[in-house]
Amino acid sequence: MLLGVTSVTELVVEPVVVVVVGMMTWMVEMMTWTVEFWTGVDEDDFDLYWDSAS
Q1: At residue 14, does pLDDT exceed 60?
Q2: Are 35 and 41 in contact (CB under 8 A)?
Q3: How many CA atoms lie within 13 A of 51 on its CB side?
Q4: pLDDT tens profile 16-44
Q5: What sign does the dihedral 20-24-25-27 (CA atoms) show?
Q6: pLDDT number for residue 54
Q7: Which secondary-structure segment (H or E) carries 26?
């Protein structure tokens, strides 16, 4: 009985975790892209900024 419950739980939980992580990653990518698009700043410029600031 317990084995059946465990396998069902895994079938439900694992795809949900994958989807949630995927959505979070996608949102971060979109936010990064939006900032780069509107400011004209890309990640290399950020690296240069932090190097010069430190």
Answers
A1: yes
A2: yes
A3: 6
A4: 999 999 999 999 999 998 988 888 776 66
A5: positive
A6: 62
A7: helix 2-39
